[in-house]
Amino acid sequence: QDLNPVEEAKGYQKLVDEVSDLHRRLDHRYRFGGVVRRSSMWQRIYSQIEQVAPSKATVLLLGETGTGKGELAKAIHQHSNRRDHPFVETSCGALPEAIVESELFGHEKGAFTGATTSRKGRFELSDGGTLFLDEVGDLTLPTQVKLLRVVQDSEFERVGGVETRKVDARLVAATNRDLEEMVSKGDYRADLFYRLNVFNIRVPSLSERRDDIPLLIDYFIENICRTYNYKIFSINDNNYLLNYPWPGNVRELRNLVERIAILSPGENNDKIIDIIKESLSNSVEDNFSVTETL
C-alpha cells in the first residue's frame, strides 16, 4: 500500500535523522582510531590523519602487530569524503596463495574448481570507498604485479575473466615488515613500494608511548564493562603495567583488561593486581623479569 505524502515525508526525515546519528557515532568512534591518546607521537599522527584523510592519496601504515593500524585506517576513511561509501578490509597474510587473487579481484563462474558463481573481489566491493589491505608485505611477487596494475591504473580483470573493470577505491595499506629492506633483497617490487608509500604514517609501539597506558586502560575498562554490563572498576596501581614491555602492544593491553573484567567483576584491587601479575608472568618475554619490575 502506497504511503501518503505526509507519511513519506516523516519516513524520509526519520531516515535522515538516523543517518545523521550514525555519522555522529562514527565520528566519535573513529575520531582518531577510536581511542584517545595524549603522547606527542600520537599528536603527530592525529595531525597527519587530518592532513591526508580528505585527499585521494594512498596511505601506508607502518608498525608492529597490535599497534592499532586497522583502527587508524577506519579513522582515515571516516574523515574522508568517502565516508558514505564502503570501507572494506582484508588481511593479505591470512589469505592462502591459491585464493588471494580471487579475494582481491573476484572471479568469474567456472574460473576454477568450485567457482559455481561469479563473485566480486575486495576492490569491486570497495568501489567509491576505501580498501584497507593489511599485511601487504606478505603478498607474493606474482600478486604484487597484479596489485601494482590496480594501484597504478585503477583497472583489473577478475580471475577467469576477460572484461577489464575500472575501480575508484582509495587504498590504505599496512605492514609490520620493513618493505625497503625487502625491496633491497628483491623480495618486494620497488615500483609497488613507491606506489604504496605516497604518504606513510609510522605507528609507534606501546612501549614507545607509555604515557598513553593509563588513558588506554580507562578507555578499555569503560568499553568492556559496557559490553559485558559489568560495574566499572579501576586499577589503582599502574606501575605493573607501565613497566611491562608489551610485545603484543595495544591489543595485548586490551586483552588483559578484558581478562580482568571477566575474572574479577566488582572485585577489590588486590584481586585485580593478582590477575595482572599472573597474566604478565605467563606472557612475559625471556629477557624481561616480571619479579624485578613487579
Tally of separate helices:
13
What class do helices, strands and sheet pairing give? alpha/beta
Contiguous low-pLDDT stretches (5 residues minimum) are 22-30, 284-294
Radius of gyration: 23 Å
Major sheet: arrangement of strands: 2-3-6-1-7
Q: Give the overall silhouette.
A: elongated
* Portion of residues within helices: 40-55%
CA distance, first residue to last residue: 69 Å
Strand content: 5-15%
Residue-averaged pLDDT, rounded?
Answer: 84
Q: What's the count of strands? A: 7
Biggest pleated-sheet summary: 5 strands, parallel
How would you spell out the order of helices and strands? HHEHEHHEHEEEHHEHHHHH
What does this structure look like?
This protein has about 290 residues and is an alpha/beta fold. It contains 13 helices and 7 strands. The strands form 2 sheets. The chain has a 5-stranded parallel sheet with strand order 2-3-6-1-7. A hairpin with an 8-residue loop joins strand 4 and strand 5. Helix 6 crosses helix 8 (about 190-195). The protein is elongated, with a radius of gyration of 23 Å. The protein starts with a helix and ends with a helix. Mean pLDDT is about 85; it is low at about 20-30 and about 285-294.
